[in-house]
Batch of 2 targets.
Target 1
Amino acid sequence: MNRIAVIGCSGAGKTHLALALGKKLQLPVIHLDQLARDRGWAQIPNELFARRQEAALAPDGRWIADGNYGSTMLLRLRLADTIVFLDYPTHVCLYRVLARRIRYRGRTRPDMAPDCPERFFDREFPEFLRFVATFRAQQRPRILDKLAGLDGSPPVIMLRRPRDAMRFLATV
């Protein structure tokens, strides 16, 4: 495992798993949230985001890509030699999103772009919760289609519960 794509719903624990894998395997972790935004939550154009990823994720390099971003997911999936899909229940992801908002309220998470402090309630928060709540019904089938299109290469490790991730980490 030299190029790992960690994907899944917001709140599933992609960053936590990516950092733990990075430490264990001595691989750099690329946080897509840092590449997708500029200071102050400014979303960058998709073309620039794709170029930033291409620069960060060398096809012959060693890395862990932490994040979803469906518009550029195939780029990462095709470069990865291993894909880890955190396919967790909705209630786990919703709980973790809320806990993360509380934990980092007013501060920028280490995996985010600079000057992007967590805001517990803002205009986008209800829409973000709706995205998380409907992820399994709306986003998951799209991800599964992309994974099926890879024809089994690279291998996909499906983790369905947090304890599965702990077991996976113990075996790496």
Target 2
Amino acid sequence: MEYEYALSKQKPTIAFLHENPGVISASKTEPTEDGKQKLEAFRQLAKTKVVKHWSSPADLGSKVSRGVVRLIKDHPAPFWVRMNQAAEAVAPEILRLREKIDELQALLDKGAEQPPKGAEQLAQGSDEYKLNFDVNFVDRKEEVLWESGYWVPASWDTIFRAIAPHMIDKASEKEIERALHSSTLSGTNFRNSQKTTRT
């Protein structure tokens, strides 16, 4: 069954057959007529492929050794190896990859603790930015009585806290303006070049 399976998978095979099976003692061969017929049928099947004949145990050992080596050279292919042998073979590569992973993880950890290169030239969270506003004072008829431009100092951290919740989903420019207005103008001193007022 194994031999037929190998043939069905087009695996290279080699059979080692006794050159004179008639001299084999009855105790070392098939005892039944049915068994003898099946053995002969298998010998005939094996003869359709590569065959080596042998006459003695020493002769068999020699031909198996040379035949298998030749078969491997003529038909190189992947093969099964024992688990312990496979582990030993790949251990250096596993060690190298682990060291590489540790090296990359260290770089990631360092990057998480420090700002990216060049970030020192950018505005920082505590840096102050001036938000400019146009303020109109109107009467009950919505007629403008007085208008002026004001600026409000706010840190970038303050600005980000004000608009970040609105940026989870797409926000319009008006929505961002309202968020900044409600966060930075309420209770804040407005200053221009002429006067100070409070809203």
